[in-house]
Amino acid sequence: MADKVLMKGNEAIAEAAIIAGCRHYFGYPITPQTEIAAYMAKRLPKIGGVFLQAESEVAAINMVYGVASTGTRVMTSSSSPGISLKSEGLSYLAGADLPSLVVNVQRGGPGLGGIQPSQADYFQATKGGGHGDFHMIVLAPSSVQEMAELTVHGFELADKYRMTSMILADGTMGQMMEPVALDALKVGEPVEKPWATTGTKLERVHNIVNSLSLVPEELEELNFARYERYKVIEENEVMYETYRMEDAEICIAAFGIASRVSRNAVDAAREMGIKVGMIRPITLWPFPKKAFKDSLATCKAYISVELSMGQMIEDVMLATEGKAPVTLCNRVGGMIPSPEQVLESIKETAARIGGNN
Amino acid sequence: MVVFDKPHALNDIPFHYCPGCTHGIIHRLVAEVMDELGIEGKAVGIAPVGCSVMAYNYFNCDMIEAAHGRAPAIATGVKRALPDSIVFTYQGDGDLASIGMAETVHAAARNENITVIFVNNAIYGMTGGQMAPTSLPGQVTQTSPYGRDVKQCGFPIRVCEMLATLDGPEYLERVTVNNVKQIRNAKKAIKKAFQNQVEGKGFSLIEVLSTCPTNWGMTPQAALKWIDDKMIPYYPLGVYKDRTAAAAAVEKEEN
């Protein structure tokens, strides 16, 4: 059995990144994710890596762009307002097809907002995260173990598909401590990067890392090709977990901390004889559309439990194609729904749809 | 016998620059220096947003195109990942001294071991001649049609002088390329800026006063003269910082 260590979610991300071979970290202090920077500042210089506190989030993401251009694994982390600043760089990384890992430990917004947990950056993360047509792979951990596992997985997907993977966590995930089995992390073989700008050594034609394309026909082709790649990801990289869904008539959709709360509510409702289950998306992009669509075989109603004013709910509605009602159960501004609140929502839904409960 | 040839570090793609623009001369100087130092094979250049946005097409070394103003941050990433590479940025005044000022100042403060070629032509060229952070007081541009009014929009920024107040940078010099003598001097400065990087000395920035006849509304010849008459008085040429030379002078005095 693997040894377990007690770690904060933020620390688990940092250590997992090192295990994944990442030796370059650039960041700027912002609550509630600063432990990642602090951990990297302590560890990386001891193992021949580079930790650099950038002058801004904008500079940090561009340092990431520079390292990524050389074909080297690299990451940055921040929280909501800092991710907004990085969004310029996220768009350029997408346009230049560069792999990187970006962590967003979300806090309440908009604006400076607060420093308590939130999931209100769902739209920003899953629908682009900057100007232009692009996606990031968005991974939503719901335990400290998953913070570590998805960090390694995120690096590998980034290299495989030449794009940014984002870990979309929240303040709770970042701050809470749980046992983690780091030995269980599996790191794959490195991917060849013949496109990297590492110097020609006068042996090949120069490589150019670039997102500029002034000929519309060519830029259109680049966008088409990128979306072909996205299609492959949507077919092959979807991750989700189902919980007590076998005969469920009500389906909860929740990720991250909201899924932890919802799990308790599902158990309580089952005790009362309500047929309820949960689909927990692990990849928010690509969204597990098929899992939701297939659940229509038994489900008559959906509840999206979120720490936002209702963002993922739109993807649940799209996936279920309007064939069943979807309601929102939420808290915002740094507040977290309680299991009782979710249970109440389940009971109301059960009463509305009737049936044999 | 070949008496004049294109440097190896430049390829055969024709420049897109306007007639009378001095970007072409500066490109050539950078390429000649790469040839002479034998560094093309390990060089990574970073192009800006602005007139020289397509510099990535012209240099034969590996090239990266940056977001507007971010070249020094990208250069930092490249150099930190590949410490043995030779990393340079090529940036205009809008890119370096306006939108990218923070990245410039902090790369200098960290003494990043990179070379910055800063082309100052006192105007935004690519977008059609708007006021730049280095446009002179009274200078007429598309966005200062009555002349730059310093009461309303502030004063031009002298980058070399400002960066010289920092402990970080190794070498800062302002040159120009408006006649043969100045071109030779500019090449010497650019070569030193690359040589410093080869020797691991740190951040070197060469500011090159450059022309923009198209957006200044002048003939190429008048533009070359405008550098002497208007730009140099506001932006005096010379070395603003040379840490190695300064240290040697102190040592000599002490002995």
Low-confidence spans of chain B: pLDDT under 50, at least 5 residues?
Answer: none
Largest sheet of chain B: 7 strands, mixed
Number of helices of chain B: 11
Second CATH tier, the architecture of chain B: 3-Layer(aba) Sandwich
Query: How much helicity do the residues of chain B have?
Result: 40-55%
Strand order of the largest sheet of chain B: 2-1-3-4-6-5-7
The run of helices and strands of chain B is: HEHEHEHHEHHEHEHHEH
End-to-end separation of chain B = 50 Å
Keywords:
heterodimer; A: 357 residues; alpha/beta; Rossmann fold; 5-stranded mixed sheet; 12 helices; 15 strands; B: 255 residues; 7-stranded mixed sheet; 41% helix; globular
Describe this structure in words.
The complex is a heterodimer of chains A (357) and B (255). In chain A, 41% of the residues lie in helices and 19% in strands. Chain A has 12 helices and 15 strands. In chain A, the strands form 4 sheets. Chain A has a 5-stranded mixed β-sheet, sandwiched between helices. The model of chain A has no long low-confidence stretch (mean pLDDT 97). Chain B is an alpha/beta fold. Chain B has a 7-stranded mixed β-sheet, with helices on both faces. The model of chain B has no long low-confidence stretch (mean pLDDT 97). At the A-B interface, helix 3, helix 4 and strand 9 of A face strand 1, strand 2, helix 3 and helix 5 of B.
